[in-house]
């Protein structure tokens, strides 16, 4: 209903009268147009919140997840909402929203490829996830923060320091990528071992968030 009202305003707010009234009408028309596009962004964000809540509930149940279905849901969210906001004034919102969705999609696909022992495809998905996360991180404004701020409970982890310049969702997704790298290392240890010496491989794997092999 809100979107229909914005579209109605955009249709009927045509410039007329003197220069001042014409300028005002054009401004109102622009605002109506941008507001209509922002409604797509808000709905897309709400869908992503629902998606993360679904991930959280599935994880808490500790049951088998159908990652293919999760990827399909995520791709559907992008398809339904990405084309709705494209005005230059909201392009930054679109870029960040796109990077968030694409990063998560690549990581879910990486989980699928790792579980199916597909070394090449898993490598490519992890590389793409890493690239998208880095690009997303470069667009997050770094704020000055005070040191020694106590940690607080976060939705996306056990604790989150207020001094972190990144939003909790970004930090959580970066940790997820790290855990996938750890899983990748243990699944394809034999393949990786043929491409380097054992000491160097163990040293690199020990830097992962979860040193599964040495543990």
TrEMBL record:
The record, for Pfam families, names: C12orf66_like (PF09404)
Please name the InterPro entries in this protein's record. C12orf66-like_central_sf, KICS_2
Q: Which domain of life is it from?
A: Eukaryota
- GO BP term (any one): negative regulation of TORC1 signaling
- Can you say what this protein is called? Uncharacterized protein
Name the source organism. Answer: Biomphalaria glabrata (Bloodfluke planorb)
Q: What is the lineage of its organism?
A: Eukaryota, Metazoa, Spiralia, Lophotrochozoa, Mollusca
| Originating gene | 106051323
